[in-house]
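Bench log. Compound arrived from synthesis this morning; before running ITC I wanted a structural hypothesis for how N-carbamoyl-L-aspartate sits in the protein. Inputs:
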Amino acid sequence: MNATAGKPQDRALPTHLLDLDTLAAKDILGLCDRAVQLRDTGSQAPAALQGMSVINLFFEGSTRTRSSFQLATERLGGRVLNFDVATSSTSKGETLLDTLKTLAAMSPDIFVVRHGTSGAANFVSQVLGEGFGIVNAGDGWHAHPTQGLADILTIREQLGDDWAQRRVVILGDILHSRTARSLVKGLSSLGTRDIRTVGPRTLQPARFEGVTMHSAVEDALPGADVVMALRLQRERMQRHSIPSQREYFELWGVTPERLDLAAPGAILMHPGPIGRGGDLASAAADGPASRIIEQVANGVAMRMAVLERIAGLLARQRKKGG
Ligand code: NCD
């Protein structure tokens, strides 16, 4: 696949969720409302995906994202095919395009795509077109919209809807984080203006629209009511971007003492996987401010809401088409 084949700025079709800039504030809040309703239905969730199949097309490792899409699909009565790259023809050199054509010929309904190349989900959506639902489950450094939505739901449940008053700090390896990029887009649509990033200069992008960048934790944290910590994504680092693990933790590690610099009642979030002891002290990860487990639960509920919405749009589209 050509690395520039996908054009992240392309507007997505309504049955495709490629990033959060295609959703208006009311769409984001509507999905949050629906996710809460679906979470509360427990085993009585509507069979919105009955007769439909979802292909989990994961070219990169994943624990919570893949399992949560699987559970979300099953709870809505759909079938899941987990495409395993290690045992697929990709390992025999098949291109992404050929893999897509092959899987599309089997008439699935929704593709959930994770890929190491930024723009991969946009590429998939251009190749497959409107007849399928496509959800970006993380492409390179670019976007991870359902994680951003689950994080927004978690913030909303803890702190309410005063989005213009929110002070959000994103701490750690910002440069490689698709989660940070989608979260900032979503929060910006909701009207949050005070979004700060903090981490080593080598792990922050040269420009990041909508955020104020800091390098010292002591400058970034005061007054924050949300602290989103991020993992050091070593697998994406080209060279040594940090002097040493020990020095990184000394300067940017999330500890209960550092969290005390934030506003009283501030919450700690992390999209996972957490780097216990590496970027996040256990006492912070398991402490009273932590909402990391709530984020995971909200991840399943939000993916149900997204899949239900796409299934509804597909069903309507097919009815119209005869
Ligand atoms: C993130 C991802 O894969 O983008 N995790 C996730 O989906 N929950 C962040 C990460 O890998 O560090």
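What the model suggests: The chain has a mean pLDDT of 92. The beta strands are 16-17, 53-58, 79-84, 110-115, 133-139, 167-171, 194-198, 212-214, 226-229, 267-269.
ITC booked for Thursday regardless.
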